[in-house]
Amino acid sequence: EMSEIPKETLALWEKYGVGEADDKESFQKSFIRHVTTTLARSVYNIDNFSAYQATAHTVRDRLIKRWNDTQQAHTEVDPKRVYYLSLEFLLGRSLDNALLNLGLKENYGEGVKELGFRMEDILDEEVDAALGNGGLGRLAACYMDSLATLDYPAWGYGLRYTYGIFQQRLKDGFQVELPDYWLNFDNPWELPRLDVTIDVKFCGTVNRYTDETGKVRHVWVNEDKDTVQAVAYDVPIPGYGTKNCINIRLWSSKPKRKFNLKRFNEGQYEQAVQEQMEAENITAVLYPNDNHMVGKELRLKQQYFWVSASLSDIVRRFKKSSKPWDEFSYQVAIQLNDTHPTLAIVELQRILVDLEGIDWDEAWKIVTNTFAFTNHTILPEAMERWPVPMVQYLLPRHMQIIFDINLFFLQAVERAYPDDRELLAKLSIIEESTPQFVRMAHLAIVGSHRVNGVAALHSELLKKTIFKDFVRYYGDEKFDNKTNGITPRRWLHQANPKLSELITEALGSKNWLKNLELLKGLKSHVDKVDFRKRWVTAKHSNKVRLAEYIKKSTGIIVNPNALFDVQVKRIHEYKRQFMNILGVIHRYNALKKLTSQERADIVPRVVIFGGKAAPGYYIAKLVIKLINSVADVINNDNSIEDTLKVVFIPDYNVSVAEIIIPASDISQHISTAGTEASGTSNMKFVLNGGLILGTVDGANIEIHEEIGDDNIFMFGNLADQVDDLRHAHRYRNIPIDPSLQAVINDIESGHFGDSRIFAPLINTITHGKDYYLISDDFQSYLDAQKLVDEAYKDKEEWTKKSILCSANMGKFSSDRAIQEYAEQIWNIDPVPAKRS
Ligand code: 475
């Protein structure tokens, strides 16, 4: 709400308001001011880290200005806003991204140079904001970049974890986890809003009463000790080539009551601070599981804490406009990033019914028109289910509301399908086991007006498998596909400046950064020898950069002229890093059999792995150990004359990805068909002119469609064969693929160290059921690898493929994805940023 301000006051603000001086001199002035006042240092006392801080604070000042202008414009227009609820935002570093998005990189680069620093060194001082596990969290970050760039009035809501995803070290080839204390030094990329606090209740009881109109109402009461405070920290997200700067609001937990004085006076010092510690625990740490649910009470507390604070903030903002409640869903769209925020559905219903006194049916209409839900995985172990007794204890009123939602839903189903008790059991939000469980995906579907998967195959599989019965009831209009995308700003322009520059020159402008379809224009350059040469030069310098990083982080020396073959992603059985390393052993054994003369014809390879295993995921950790054991043997075997090297890059994260991705010749996306919902790194590699070796899964399929048969290596069984193959493994004796058996024998012979360590891993194929079908795909995997080796020998042809890869990736911009969400699900319009 804009109040009247005297003209004289406005004039003063006009006169002294923070300008947007972007030239070199203003930068230097600001840099020196921040060194002197913010850092309390002097010219004699600045290292690279202080230079980073002073530069970051200068950029922060600019961001705050834009952030304010943007919020003011949104307040004036009061458009429909979208709220993106995500438990993870995997942002990585911010400085370089902000410099590029704001168009400050050149001037500031010169500015720091004259002050005696190199911008690259300064950028390298920043620690990643790693508040996410992998795909889901990084997708949220790309989507925020696109929302800002496209001027959409959007907010992200998440948690400000004190510890992000753990740091990974290797000891004797095993993963070791270290805490990620990213807030050790100040964080210039957040604006603490210590005045924005919200009380979040837990536990307590529900009282029924009859109000003055005779209606039965519920009131949820609890003790002060069970109330926690949420404090807002705002993270500005600048768009590219716009003045617009949106917000991610991250909540941090703190105790409502600082200190139990009574206990303290009784001499019970630990108990006096215990409540405080329990409150702070809520946002202490990110759960380090990717594609896997862990049913810990603290995780459920995190979810409600976040959802409750966010909804109360959203409702408060809506109420400022004094619009009637039936316009809520015309002002507010809420996107649920997986089922983690599903309690938001229940919380909004509670706010409307219990606090605002709106009738149940009317409230429920508002709720379902507001929410939409994105599913990110089909794996059964990732499906969220919470024990009813746990929900009942922490959130007694929410448990009642969930039972009511379920009752009304099942009654409606019964009217449509009388006498189909089986259908009711399948659709029910409550799993009737002992104890009962709340099925969060069912609740999310029932409470949303739209449900989407993240790639075409995945969305089809959802409709055909886990959500089949819901499609039968609702019809399939409620279920659709929004294929994921990635931001070309970070994943090409920022990570690969050399290629970005070449593309801009070839296309005659930077417009492709806002309209990725323009990359099609590169096709007409494919046949130009000179252009291809420059393309290869850019790739080569990226490989040199990665080789240097590998030397620094592992001590291993690799040859940049070798074929760089990369698989970097979370370590998971379904992603089959195991199959990759088994293939490496097969290759090694073949190389050993060759004569020196024969080896001269071999394309040398560097096989690069990276990725974290969830700390409790024993088999995934063994995969890391096996990779390192195999690497040890191969890298120290001079007899194969450097035709093969194996590298495990430790602590894979966003900023390491920015070095690895532009340097790959081929990358592997080899999940068992039907298991990888989309994948997004596949898009990043291809956009950077890297070819991919992939299974017919997730977004690989759509990438294949866009770039054509000649520019991709696909192999393996299809999704619709998986059930039968698994059945066969379970009930018949399927002989293991002979090439695979030979590799297994080699491991078991002790060639890569004490094989007893690896027995549980090997058992997943031999004594288990080979659930991820490594044996079934192994031969076609080796065949596809052979084709890769052959193709790489023809450098000119390979380069053409590489160019055509980038040229055809327009579809996979997160701008396209966000535009689809905005138009087809959220029904929101851009609010162009005002110049000021
Ligand atoms: C998919 N995380 C990728 C990416 O859509 C896809 C689940 C439960 C608990 C904690 N984390 C999760 C995921 O399910 C996840 O990251 N899914 C990933 O989402 C973006 O590209 O294929 O595996």
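^ 475 complex. Residues 133-136, 139, 289-293, 338, 376-377, 382, 454, 484, 676-680, 698 surround 475 (CB under 6 Å). Residues 48-77 form the longest helix (30 residues).
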